[in-house]
Amino acid sequence: MTEPARPREVAAIDIGSNSFHMVVARIIGQSLQIISRHKQRVHLASGLDSQSNLDQAAINRGLHCLAMFAERLQGFEPENVRIAATYTLRQAKNAHVFLKRAESVLSYPIEIIPGTEEARLIYLGVAHTQPDSGKKLVVDIGGGSTELIIGDDFEPQLAYSKHMGCVSYHKRFFAKGKISAKNMAAAQLAAQQKLESIASQYIREGWQTAIGSSGTIKAIREVLIGQGHSDGVITAKRLQQLSEAILTVKHYDELNFDGLNEDRKPVFAAGVAILCAVFNSLNIDEMNFSDGALREGLLYEMEERFRHSDIRVRTATAMAAQYNVDIAQANRVKATAELLYNQIEPQPGMTKVELATLLSWGAQLHEVGLSISYPGFHRHSAYLLRHSTMPGFNLEQQTVLATLVRFQRKSLKLEEMPELSIYKRKHLYPLIRTLRLAVVLNGQRSDDPLPAIVVNADKENWRLTLPEGWEESNRLLAADLRQEQEYWRKAGWELVLMPDND
């Protein structure tokens, strides 16, 4: 009798500004069964200096934690692990140093995700772990940023990430651990100023229930329970009373609330100040707590059945519509790029499959910059893809898309390529060559099908075989291809054009 197949196990790691979290789950049918949680207080954000560089001590704390997490991940396939880094690594100018050293500790890629993507994933994690349906406001106060999302069921509708967190506000307003009414008021006012630009929009949108997630709001809830509020609901009145109770001490060491852990004490006053500002700015009466957060959102997206691929489709479609992309031309370039790439990578591994997917998105969106102007539109396209809000894409993926469209035409100034952390430059070169050829071959913007094209690739030396006699009947295309040969030659690449004599 054969044993039943073991359920698939997946793991997600949230590299936060205050704490690192790991959660492991089994996929059982259409649901996730959490089987272990791990948390380490790392205080990564406290290691950011005035130049936005992470100091060595913070890097070492982070690597030590990841080494412990790696022990639990032994035997996990790469497709079953997802690691997301948030505010502090978004801000750190030397994030690449941390990521490079992390490679030797963890054999899985670390994604640095944009703030709006963090917000979307937080909402997804909360929505999947809350029994209530309907319209929700979700607030997540982290170490370096605060995410605010309004959504209905599993669909986020408004999502913002604000640069205010319990660690960064502790450093800014509660230097050396001193607590005073003046410091508390200054922190709260600064947070309300951050929220000023979005408050009216959120209030107009409205919600049925307000839900808080992650460590800061969890700590506040546990202190309120310790004060006798056994329902654990955070109300405006209770929050104000808690703020006043904090002001009865002069230093965070003196905070002795039941339910408040020692390692949460340093950043507790800053967290309370931010949540008070959120309550005041958005006119919140009460808030419940959810165990679901970013890491649960990562888990739910890991399984195709949980619609991650649909999100990127919707993002690309919406962006193409927003910038009036010629869909017929985009589809022609996309089809040609996929045809060529399949010839040079007939049996791609997982990394190449992901890159092939990004090549397809890049082809679909390569002309978004035309909405700005034709001269230099490849640079405009790159800027839009790098800096737009693109749900479903992490920062590295947006950088890859931007790089592909930046180098789709004109001279190959490869020294301008940005630094990457998950992929290597050599991974992108075949994609750049492929997209360039697809763009040139469809330069006539014609619905007439292209002739049979064969491409053979040997590193930077490519041979393009087209039907015999094609040059006589496609003189403009032939001229464009000869110009392309020159661009390749100046970059140290070779493009050979061969007639098919068969």
From TrEMBL:
Keyword Transmembrane tagged: no
Source organism of the structure: Photobacterium gaetbulicola Gung47
Name of protein: Exopolyphosphatase
Catalytic activity field: [phosphate](n) + H2O = [phosphate](n-1) + phosphate + H(+)
EC number: 3.6.1.11
A GO term, aspect molecular function: exopolyphosphatase activity
PANTHER family, alphabetized: EXOPOLYPHOSPHATASE (PTHR30005)
EC main group: hydrolase
Membrane topology: Peripheral membrane protein
NCBIfam families referenced in this protein's UniProt entry, alphabetically: exo_poly_only (TIGR03706)
GO biological process, one term: polyphosphate catabolic process
